[in-house]
Every structure is written in structure tokens, then in C-alpha cells.
Fold this protein.
Amino acid sequence: MIQVALIGDGQLARGVASALARRRDLSVIGPTPRESHPMVLRSGADVVVIATTTLLHDVIGSIETAVAAGSNVIVSAEEAAYPWAVDAAGADRVHLAAIERDVTVLGCGLNPGFVFDAQVLTLLGAHGPARRIEVSRVVDLSGFGPVVAARLGLGVSAAQFEQGVHSGAILGHAGFTQSIALVAHALGMPIDRFERSIEPIMTEGVSAGVSQTDVAIVAGEAWFEARFVGHRSPATAGLVCRDEILLDPATDDALRCLIEPGIRSQAGSQHLIANSIDRVLSAPAGWLTVADLPPARPVVSTAH
């Protein structure tokens, strides 16, 4: 029996628990509230899923605790998808600890973890090196709770939005830098710098959505452009939920992949994490990325 422990008791952790409930070969601990986290992190479960927050510095201590207890770890925090872009020393420390304990750490979700990185790399396998990559995602934000809404900058005036971006209280959608850096590392592509823009989508004086773009500059040219548009009511704003990847647009080698409607944010993240249990258990030791592993897939047959 494989033991999986869920750290966190929010929407994501509850969704992962629901997705795992159909498997009779798993024993699931949690979801667990904050006061139970220290005990569960030290439980020595086969896999610990940390589904709590966004920033690496908020979860790295929990990752280290679980690794020290001999657990494999899956982390939903966007910055954990490619931690070397945020804290290279911390990522190396955890990587070496995971190798010593013969366990795997993986940052995984829908974005990062699939749309802007794993799916891009898969398409590049059938395309070859791309001189330009454009990925865009239009998302319905109506199902997100107040914490995520505040981080995205919803429900505030234009002035408050600008102030929040400046102070760091409004992050928009985190993880684009990690996705792009992950793809660049997998391809051996050196990035000169990143450029970012983020703007509110206003309705009746308050922000009902957000539009942001992150661009990686390589050899002085835009190489990877990641665009995200999220709205509380996409249809009323004339938006269609979709995921789109363009490789070498406006050339004879152009390749376009469109998913319409786009993959649902919460459900997509829940299933990608739940469907990563087995690929983490069979992976080499260390802090890995989705570029190092086979695609996530559901386990259809289960043990009695």
C-alpha cells in the first residue's frame, strides 16, 4: 500500500484527495490543516504532496523536512517547478539531500508543469528547435478563492492594482519565469533576461481580470513569450477560454496547437498532481523537473 500525505486543506489539496480516492492501492493522509503540518511532514509517507502556497521560500523548509523523513515530495508552489531560477543555493541543497535520502522532489501543476513547459517540450520534439515560441492561456477566474484573487489583483481600483504590483502584493500569475527557464534549461538555451508586463482588466472601476506577458530574451531577441489573460467572467468580456502554443509563427515551419476550451485551472492542477504519484515514485533521486520525467497519466488499474 502506497501512503500519500496531503499538506494543506484548501481547494487544491481537497481536489487531489478526491482524485486519489478512486485508487485502492493508496492510503491517503489528509488534507491536513496548518497545525498538523509538522507531524505529517515527518510521517515518512511514501509521497508528501505540499499544496499550500506559491513562493519557494514559503515551502522550502517543509520540503526539507519531508525529504529528511525519507519521503518523495510533490510541490504545487509555482516557483518550485524550476527552483534554480529563484534560489539556486537552496535548490542545490535540497537536491543533494534528496539524493542522499534516495527520494525525488518535483514541482508540478498545470502552470507550471504542463501548458507552458511540458506540453511545449513535447511539441518541440515533433518540430525541432524553435526560433520563437508563443504560449497564451485565457482562463476563467470565477472559481478561485479570495487568497488567489488578491494575489492576481482582482477587485481593486487601477491605482490600487498599480500600487500592489509595485509592493509585490499583486503577483499576477506566478510561475512563467520558472516554466520558461525550465524549457530553456532542457534545450540548453541561455536566457539574457526576462521582461514582464501586467495590467488589470477593468469593469465598472474595479479589476475583473488581469493580463500579463513574460518574455525571455535570447541573443537580443524575444525567444519565448508567455501570455496569460484571466477574467472572472470571460464570456461577458468577449474572451474564449483556450490554450494555444505557436512555434515559429509567420514562418514556413510554423506549428500551432490549440486547446479550446482551455484546460480548467483547478481540475487540471489537481489531476496532474494526482497523476504524478507513480512517476515520482519511479523517478531517479534528486530535485527533478517535468522535463526529466515521462508525461503524467492516470492509473486505470488498481490493487485490491
